[in-house]
Amino acid sequence: MKTIILHSQDLTIAQLVSQQVGADIQKKRTHFRFTTDKIIDLNALRERFKLDFNIVPESFSASQIGLLVSDMDSTLINIECIDEIADFANLKPQVAGITERAMQGELDFDSSLVERVALLKGLDVSVLEQVYTQRLQINPGGKALINFLHERNIKSAVVSGGFTYFTDRLAQDIGLDYSRANVLAVDNARLAGVTQGAIINAQAKADFINELCQKHALDVSQVIAVGDGANDLAMMKVAGLSVAYHAKPIVAEQADIAINVGGLDKIMDLFDE
């Protein structure tokens, strides 16, 4: 039997879904569920109702989850930080184009990061503060999700191919337990156009999950990984449950769960069994 989640509280739509899938409505606190042994076309449901639908993987056990690890740019937050930094050098279109191709999986992440960071050379470090305070926002439902994890004693982390200036500050501001990202080199209060240390790429993100699991005596099956771009796929494959959040097609089609309409709080629906 399959359990289908309708990530909505609209009873009228739930009734229509019930008719379409031939299953009774199960009312939950924030959503509806349906249990059926029929073959379900999720994409057809998503297209018809313009809402999020997912099938809960049989292996998923909400009570066993001990860690959620999220990407930062365009996942936990609304922007790609490197693109916004580049805007201060009047290079946003050029850098954003490279970022988009990297996230679609069309470019090697490491070389694309080196290329983009080099274009930032000479910018005053004060632009980082401006990006954080003036342009960066938590995506809808993000704070509610983190608070929910705290209530359940589930550890939380952000890992990014972006920069520690943003991940560390974000972790402090919204209460994440861990953060990891690339370190921007600075020379005389200006960006040096390079990063320091190993690049946090797709494999490094996956390694971060394994590291945190070892630290907290967790199995990877107890981890939820959330991402949107091609460089999130490795960590999403490692984790017990992968969530694609407003993701690139290459990511959405490979994830266990896809949130394309609602906010990050829709992840909480998985726990309301």
From TrEMBL:
Active-site residues?
71, 73
Annotated EC: 3.1.3.3
Cofactor(s) the protein needs: Mg(2+)
Query: What is the catalytic activity of this protein?
Result: O-phospho-L-serine + H2O = L-serine + phosphate; O-phospho-D-serine + H2O = D-serine + phosphate
One cellular component term (GO) for this entry is:
cytoplasm
An example of a Gene Ontology BP annotation on this entry? L-serine biosynthetic process
| InterPro entries associated with the record | HAD-like_SerB, HAD-like_sf, HAD_sf, PSP
Listed GO MF terms: L-phosphoserine phosphatase activity; magnesium ion binding
Q: Which key words are in the record?
A: Amino-acid biosynthesis, Hydrolase, Magnesium, Metal-binding, Serine biosynthesis
According to UniProt, this protein's pathway is: Amino-acid biosynthesis; L-serine biosynthesis; L-serine from 3-phospho-D-glycerate: step 3/3
Q: Name one Pfam family in it.
A: Hydrolase
Q: Which NCBIfam families has this protein been placed in?
A: HAD-SF-IB, serB
What does the similarity note say? Belongs to the HAD-like hydrolase superfamily. SerB family.
Provide the protein name: Phosphoserine phosphatase
Source organism per UniProt: Candidatus Thioglobus autotrophicus
- Give the source lineage, highest ranks first: Bacteria, Pseudomonadati, Pseudomonadota, Gammaproteobacteria, Candidatus Pseudothioglobaceae
